[in-house]
Amino acid sequence: MGSEAILFDLMAISIARPPWTKLGRRLESACRKALFEFDMLENVSKVAIALSGGKDSLSLLFLLKAISGHGFPELDIYAIHVDGEFSCGAGVEVSFLKAICQELEIPLIVQTSTQKKEGLECYRCSRERRRLIFDATKSVGADVVAFGHHRDDNAQTVLMNLLHKGEFAGNLPKLKMVDFGVTIIRPLIYIAEEDLRNFAKAHGFARISCQCPVGQRSKRKEVDALFGELEALYPNARANVANAGLQYGSDKARKK
Fold first, then answer.
1. Domain ranges of the chain
2. Is the pTM value of this prediction over 0.85?
3. 135-176: per-residue pLDDT in tens?
4. What is 50-113 written as a DSSP string?
5. Topology of domain 3-253, CATH
6. What's the rounded Cα separation, in Å, for the pair 155 and 227?
7. Which residues lie below 8 Å from residue 137, measured CB to CB, with a gap of 6+?
8. Residues near 49 by Cβ (< 8 Å), separated by ≥ 6?
């Protein structure tokens, strides 16, 4: 991408902030519900956000910034982006994310992935990416990191675990990673991907997508397509599977 195109992107981006449209209010309400029901911000003053630059993580960034200090304690928010030739943030200009974070007064930390095309594989890439994010989180004195996993991600995980391992478990809304000294939270766990897509379109950041050649043919993509077929018979398939995962998939998923 040339310098003129980058400049255009920086000028064209619309920062999503209140006052919201009807959709924005619904997304903030769902995010607040998750934060409250699963005690995601209990005794938390600093939180890092894993910012790939896609619609999900940018929506999370905008929503948490809007919520901070309004019904919840004011948070010190940090954004962490993993750059590299082959990462979930590949193809996203760091200058584009810097401009957004500067406008929101959120520090941006950039880590670099070492993944190459030879031997590129989702599991290995994900492990390295998480390690880089966790290290950056702890470097700013935080121990909570928010990921942009949404309702549909959770439904896919439930079905993949059930079919592949015979386990009924999805994405936990709040997960303490004891070995790494951080806690993962997922504030978008109640929000459908389609709502995030429409939110991104309304605010001008929907054009960014994952460029990973492996991710485009992953098992998760296949399960997403399977849900598309199921919804022809059962229109609420994703929502019902995701909800079942939260209700019955693990005792840890429910607020004590």
1. 3-253
2. yes
3. 999 999 999 999 999 999 999 999 999 998 899 999 999 999
4. E--SSHHHHHHHHHHHHHBTTTB---EEEEEEEESSSSTTTT--HHHHHHHHHHHT--EEEEE-
5. Rossmann fold (3.40.50)
6. 9
7. 48, 78, 80, 143, 144, 145, 182
8. 57, 60, 61, 64, 77, 78, 79, 80, 145, 146, 148
